[in-house]
Amino acid sequence: MKIQLSDHFTYKKLLRFTFPAIIMLVFTSIYGVVDGFFVSNFVGKTHFDKGSLIKTCVNGSSELTSNISMSVVNMLYNGQLLNYAGEDGIAAYGVLMYVSLIFQAVFLGYSVGTAPIVGYHYGAQNKSELKGLLQKSLLLITIFAVFMLTSSLTLAKPLSYLFTGYDRALLLLTLRAFSIFSFSFLFSGFGILGSSFFTALNNGLVSAAISFLRTFVFQIAAVLTFPLIWKVDGIWGSVVAAELLAAGVTAFFLKSQQKNYGY
User: Fold this and answer.
1) What Cα–Cα distance (Å) separates residue 65 from each residue in 58, 60, 83, 104, 215?
2) Which site in 130, 137, 164, 260 is 20 to 30 Å from 11, CA atoms measured?
3) Are 49 and 129 in contact (CB under 8 A)?
4) Which pLDDT score, from 0 to 100, does residue 8 have?
5) The model's pTM
6) Alpha-carbon distance 256 to 249, whole Å?
7) What one-character DSSP code corresponds to residue 185?
8) What are phi and psi of 77, to 5 degrees?
C-alpha cells in the first residue's frame, strides 16, 4: 500500500511510515557513509542563497547543541564516576551507554521519520492532521517508553553479565546502575520528539532550547548535585532527572506554541 504525505495517518500508517527511519538510526554509521557518498558525488552546482543557509543552520542548531553537549557531559560523568566509584564506575557507564544508544535510536528514528509529515502538513496548513499527528506520536512514544523500560529491566542481568561477568563487584554495580538508569527511557522520547517536532515546524530556537536544556543544562546540574546526596546512585539518577525535566519543558513549549501552529 502506497503512503502519501497528504494521507490521513492512522497508527498503522504512522508506524509503517516511520519504521524505515527507526531502522536507519539503529545503523547510524552505515547511513553516514552512504549519505556522505551520495552528497559528495551526486549533488551538482547550485546558486548560493545566504538567507536560506542561515535559516537552515538556525533550524538545525538543536542537533549542533546535542553533539557538543554530549562530549562535555560525558567527560563530566566520567569525572564524577572516577571520584565516586573508580574505574568500575567508568566500565558500568560504558555498558549503559551501549544500551542507551540502541534504545534511543528508536525514539530518534521515529522522530526523524515523522518530521517530513509534520513539515508537509504545517506547510499545507492542514491543522487537523497536524494535531492528529502530534496526539498519535505522543501516544506511540508513551508505548515505546514503557516497552523500553520493561525491556531494559528485563535484559539488565544478561546484558550486565555479557559485558561485566568477569568481575562480581563490577557486575553488581552495573546491575544497580541499570535498575536506576532504565527509568530514563520513560521520559527521554518526549524531549527527542519535541525537539524534532519544532525543527519540522521551522522553529529552530524552541527546538534548540529543548535540546540544550535536555542534553546540557539539566544533565550538568543533576550530575553535580545529586552525588552529594546519593553518591553513586545519584549519578545514575541524574540522567532520569534530566530527562524528566526535559519532558516537562517539552510539554510547556507544546502548550505555549499551540495557538501559533494550530495543532
Assistant:
1) 11, 9, 27, 17, 8
2) 260
3) no
4) 73
5) 0.80
6) 10
7) G
8) -60, -45
